[in-house]
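Re: [ENG-882] Designed sequences occasionally contain unexpected residues at chain ends

Forwarding the minimal case from QA. Structure tokens:
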């Protein structure tokens, strides 16, 4: 099968060898696996981080967002059959989705929304799982709670779906941050009640909106840059959820306000084969239902064309530059 891989993690994305096409054996499904013929993929920041930071001795297939058609199933599979359309984010411990075929445990795959194209569906699994787990499993937001959620970096992949979930499924007042007018308009269209500029002090902007403090914060990017003022605007006994990779995060400043700190990594369940691993199948199923009912929409931002090394290098370059709006998808080989 065709696959796009990396081997030298020291190469800049401008180098044609940083991501290149090769031929690999078609994988065979394990007992609980689906063998999926991949039709579309999305590119995430984790793809670029692994390519830059993880050294390998053999070519590695990146990518953890895919939509496609089940071609074969393992002997223990009960939820899917050949011919089913699925989408998934997979496991970071396995080969990724930059390939014609991929393997995924059925417990972390979901039925693709009937109303979506393959490309639109591929934009969603990793960010939907991250956003859902952050909102309901980590921050433990309950429906009916009338508080404020501040989303730092609301225009990115996770922020785009988190904004929709929070505004559609909860009674929270959603405040998103952005520094560009086009991104602010995008966030607003997804259901955010207010937008503030994360290049300016948070406190005065929130007070101008009549918000004295914030119960929930989802810090999706540059947490270390904003950390001091995040704490400043948070309410006592508030909850802070983080998904990025700050060099250092000192929990001591959270003590006076008894702020709780929550890490969200959607790969945790599959990495450790947790007892509740099938929760990701349930989340993806719920997201598909919301999509088919028109309650939320795909966060597909740009379609970069065919799945090949050149287009993937271009996508990595945009993500590394921090200028992506919504999700970048590629489709077909």
């Amino acid at each position: 099968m065709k696959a796009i891989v990396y081997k030298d993690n020291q190469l800049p994305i401008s180098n044609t060898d940083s991501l290149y096409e090769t031929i690999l054996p078609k994988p065979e499904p394990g007992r609980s696996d689906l063998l999926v013929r991949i039709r579309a993929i999305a590119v995430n920041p984790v793809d670029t981080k692994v390519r830059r930071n993880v050294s390998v001795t053999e070519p590695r297939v990146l990518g953890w967002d895919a939509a496609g058609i089940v071609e074969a199933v393992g002997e223990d599979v009960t939820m899917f059959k050949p011919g089913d359309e699925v989408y998934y984010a997979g496991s970071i411990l396995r080969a990724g989705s930059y390939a014609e075929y991929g393997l995924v445990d059925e417990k972390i795959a979901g039925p693709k929304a009937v109303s979506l194209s393959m490309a639109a569906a591929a934009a969603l699994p990793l960010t939907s799982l991250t956003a859902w787990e952050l909102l309901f499993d980590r921050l433990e937001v309950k429906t009916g709670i009338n508080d404020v959620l501040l989303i730092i970096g609301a225009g990115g992949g996770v922020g785009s779906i988190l904004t929709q979930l929070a505004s559609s499924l909860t009674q929270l007042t959603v405040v998103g941050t952005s520094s560009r007018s086009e991104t602010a308009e995008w966030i607003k269209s997804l259901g955010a009640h207010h937008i503030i500029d994360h290049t300016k002090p948070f406190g005065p902007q929130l007070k101008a909106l009549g918000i004295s403090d914030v119960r929930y914060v989802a810090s999706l990017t540059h947490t270390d840059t904003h950390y001091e003022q995040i704490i400043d605007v948070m309410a006592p006994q508030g909850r802070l959820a983080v998904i990025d990779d700050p060099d250092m995060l000192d929990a001591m400043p959270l003590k006076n306000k008894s702020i709780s700190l929550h890490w969200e990594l959607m790969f945790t369940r599959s990495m450790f084969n947790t007892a509740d691993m099938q929760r990701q199948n349930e989340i993806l199923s719920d997201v598909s239902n919301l999509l088919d009912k028109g309650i939320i929409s795909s966060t597909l931002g740009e379609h970069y064309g065919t799945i090949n090394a050149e287009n993937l290098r271009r996508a990595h370059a945009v993500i590394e530059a921090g200028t992506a709006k919504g999700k970048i998808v590629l489709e077909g080989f």
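QA comment: On inspection the terminal residues look reasonable. DSSP finds ten helices and 16 strands in the chain. Proposing we downgrade this to a documentation issue.
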